[in-house]
Write the structure tokens for this entry.
Amino acid sequence: MIVDYNGSDINLPDIFLVGAAKCGTTTVASILDQHEHIAIPRKEPGFFSHRNKSDDDIDAVNRNRQVSKIEDYIKLYENIGEASKIADCSVRYLVTHEDTIKNIKEIYGEYKSQNLKILIILRNPIDRAFSHYNMLLKNGYEKLTFEEAILPENTESRRKERLGFDYLNHGLYYEQVKAYLDNFKNVKVYLFEELKNSESFTEDLFVNLDLDVPEIKDTNISLNPSGIPKKIWLIRLLNRDSVAKRFLKKHFYSKHKHSFQKIKAKLMRMSIEKNTMSVETREELKDFFREDVLKLQDLLGVDLTQWIQKSDGE
């Protein structure tokens, strides 16, 4: 989308996949990226969350990874080939909805911002929180038990280090989703379960984006598996930056991106084992999320009671 910014025409995204984290967004981004008319030069630039912020205002782990200056953001989209649409897939845009929406409106303007397509994927917030925890555990960033990690005092002391440590508040979707619905006219909310019917989901996704429905080869919903690290050396090798990895990305990655993603996901699954949440913790979290889920249910007009339904005997 061409946007007039300070008297100059700049090319900016037409599509925003704003989250939530650990809800299948990696798979949705992969599906979008397989369409010949959509360009995703970089996943997770996070610009509209971090625009013009100082290092002190960005969690420590993202200070050097995210884009905060518009000059750098514009450069991402200077060479998009034949693509007619650009997508920004940054899952922190949902949890940081206030800053993100404000920055989008300021840069796009009210009129252009209403032409944006906003995509949101939601998952049972209890499963989302535990999956997020297991992802950080797998990658060696999490040292606490899940029950310790979700204690308010631990969340508060660690969220400046890594926003993802705020496992529970990421799943309080109501205010986040309502803000997007209130500010944009083209917002589409999907539930994680819908991704499992890949053919139906893909068709609805591209029809909503006003694009032809292509044949998508890879609709794997587990491109970013999480769990207890079993082969930590392999996980570190897959995540480590190296000369060989940079060479492969530079010369082969763009053409074979989705094959590389599938291979990495397969190796990751070999390197982890399934982790389970205690029944007691799950029941406590149903109480924690109950009010927010019921409000979200009314907002979206869909039945979400399965997320908070008490187990038999409770």
Remarks:
- The chain has one domain: 2-227+274-308.
- Residues 2-227+274-308 form a domain with the Rossmann fold fold (CATH 3.40.50.300).
